[in-house]
């Protein structure tokens, strides 16, 4: 604003001096010396101050012409002392060459200085008000932030004490603190879910191992009462129960190693058609024994890179489940379509609300609890497939289940 004001005033001053210069040069060409002197003497001082030196004295609004005055359009400032309370005036002007000699054309510019002073005072006042307002707003803003930080700290202490249901509040501002609170709340949701999963795993371990451990206890109590002939049979039963317990813990350790990437994969190029044929050959005898039918369908082959043993273990687990949970006369299909492997059956199926939960550790649906197992099969399947960048989706077969694996 200051530069614009100065530029505008400078432009107006140049235009005014240039106009007066042209006017007096034109008058010198059209008027005689006496008439020209009269025009200079009667010039309006509100427009410009004109001074001309004739052969005898100075004529015009001033009693002197300063030395070293430049020729217009160049100009310079010079002071003039006058009577009255306002004794010093600042003029700006220059010389214009006419037929009758040089003429000093000047105008007062001390009003511009006054205007600049007023502008500077107004700017300083506005700056001070702005600083005061900024400090006040900054203080209020910092108090607001500090209040929210104190609240977050108090809630964090509650969470540290084990109150995991605590959540950070989210305001209407939707600012960075709210974004942080949303992320923190999502972390707490995940933490609560993990804790619930741990509690569920603990409950499932207690449920699934209670029966074999009870059998072990009863068997050990009955050992002294058994005859020597029945002792080997009783020991075999106890050994079987112990093997089941150990298998459960071994499966849990293997699952953890696979999920954490601690188990090294023996990678090689594999054909999905070859894996499908091996699955069919392995499961065909089991389905015949269960009076079920097994169908293999294959289309274009697809090559993948993976661990042959782990992949076969995972996919055969799915085929084995299809056989185990399907009735006599059921039809089980193994379908390979390029990079997709589909295993379908017409057995009892899985409810929609349980389709994701069955992949959790030690989760066994109630109808399947009479089958012996660890409850880790599908968890292991998903972990192995994830290590091979494959996805698994469960869907209904109406009746039965369809398992779709996509590499």
UniProtKB/TrEMBL annotation:
<dbReference type="InterPro" id="IPR036890">
    <property type="entry name" value="HATPase_C_sf"/>
</dbReference>
<dbReference type="GO" id="GO:0016301">
    <property type="term" value="F:kinase activity"/>
</dbReference>
<dbReference type="Pfam" id="PF02518">
    <property type="entry name" value="HATPase_c"/>
</dbReference>
<keyword id="KW-0597">Phosphoprotein</keyword>
<keyword id="KW-0808">Transferase</keyword>
<dbReference type="Pfam" id="PF00672">
    <property type="entry name" value="HAMP"/>
</dbReference>
<feature type="domain" description="Histidine kinase">
    <location>
        <begin position="204"/>
        <end position="407"/>
    </location>
</feature>
<dbReference type="InterPro" id="IPR003661">
    <property type="entry name" value="HisK_dim/P_dom"/>
</dbReference>
<dbReference type="InterPro" id="IPR003594">
    <property type="entry name" value="HATPase_dom"/>
</dbReference>
<feature type="transmembrane region" description="Helical">
    <location>
        <begin position="122"/>
        <end position="141"/>
    </location>
</feature>
<feature type="domain" description="HAMP">
    <location>
        <begin position="143"/>
        <end position="196"/>
    </location>
</feature>
<keyword id="KW-1133">Transmembrane helix</keyword>
<protein>
    <recommendedName>
        <fullName>histidine kinase</fullName>
        <ecNumber>2.7.13.3</ecNumber>
    </recommendedName>
</protein>
<dbReference type="Pfam" id="PF00512">
    <property type="entry name" value="HisKA"/>
</dbReference>
<keyword id="KW-0812">Transmembrane</keyword>
<keyword id="KW-0472">Membrane</keyword>
<dbReference type="InterPro" id="IPR004358">
    <property type="entry name" value="Sig_transdc_His_kin-like_C"/>
</dbReference>
<keyword id="KW-0418">Kinase</keyword>
<keyword id="KW-0902">Two-component regulatory system</keyword>
<dbReference type="InterPro" id="IPR005467">
    <property type="entry name" value="His_kinase_dom"/>
</dbReference>
<dbReference type="InterPro" id="IPR050428">
    <property type="entry name" value="TCS_sensor_his_kinase"/>
</dbReference>
<dbReference type="InterPro" id="IPR036097">
    <property type="entry name" value="HisK_dim/P_sf"/>
</dbReference>
<dbReference type="InterPro" id="IPR003660">
    <property type="entry name" value="HAMP_dom"/>
</dbReference>
């Amino acid at each position: 604003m200051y530069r614009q004001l100065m530029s505008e005033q400078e432009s107006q001053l140049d235009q005014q001096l240039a106009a007066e210069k042209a006017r007096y040069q034109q008058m010198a060409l059209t008027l005689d010396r006496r008439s020209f002197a009269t025009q200079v003497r009667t010039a309006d001082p509100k427009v410009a101050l004109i001074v001309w030196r004739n052969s005898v004295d100075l004529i015009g609004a001033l009693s002197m012409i300063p030395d070293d005055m430049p020729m217009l359009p160049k100009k310079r400032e010079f002071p003039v002392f006058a009577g009255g309370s306002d004794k010093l005036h600042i003029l700006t002007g220059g010389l214009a060459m006419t037929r009758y000699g040089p003429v000093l054309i000047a105008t007062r510019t001390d009003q511009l200085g006054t205007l600049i002073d007023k502008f500077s005072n107004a700017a300083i006042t506005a700056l001070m008000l702005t600083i005061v307002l900024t400090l006040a707003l900054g203080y209020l803003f910092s108090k607001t932030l500090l209040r929210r930080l104190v609240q977050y700290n108090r809630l964090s202490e509650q969470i540290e004490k084990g109150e995991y249901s605590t959540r950070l509040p989210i305001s209407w501002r939707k600012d960075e603190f709210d974004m942080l609170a949303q992320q923190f709340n999502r972390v707490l949701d995940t933490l609560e879910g993990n804790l619930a999963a741990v509690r569920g795993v603990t409950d499932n371990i207690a449920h699934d191992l209670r029966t074999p451990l009870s059998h072990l206890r009863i068997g050990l109590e009955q050992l002294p009462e058994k005859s020597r002939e029945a002792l080997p049979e009783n020991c075999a039963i106890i050994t079987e129960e112990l093997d089941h317990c150990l298998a459960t813990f071994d499966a849990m350790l293997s699952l953890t190693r696979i999920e954490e990437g601690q188990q090294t994969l023996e990678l090689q190029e594999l054909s999905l058609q070859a894996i499908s044929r091996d699955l069919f050959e392995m499961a065909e005898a089991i389905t015949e024994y269960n009076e079920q039918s097994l169908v293999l369908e294959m289309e274009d082959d697809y090559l993948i890179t993976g661990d042959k043993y782990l992949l076969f273990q995972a996919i055969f687990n799915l085929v084995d489940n299809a056989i185990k949970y399907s009735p006599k006369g059921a039809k089980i299909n193994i379908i390979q379509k390029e990079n997709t492997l589909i295993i379908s059956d017409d057995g009892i199926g899985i409810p929609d609300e349980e389709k994701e939960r069955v992949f959790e550790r030690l989760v066994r649906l109630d109808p399947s609890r009479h089958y012996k197992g660890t409850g880790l099969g599908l968890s292991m399947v998903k972990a192995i497939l994830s290590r091979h960048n494959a996805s698994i989706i469960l869907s209904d077969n109406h009746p039965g289940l369809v398992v779709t694996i996509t590499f």
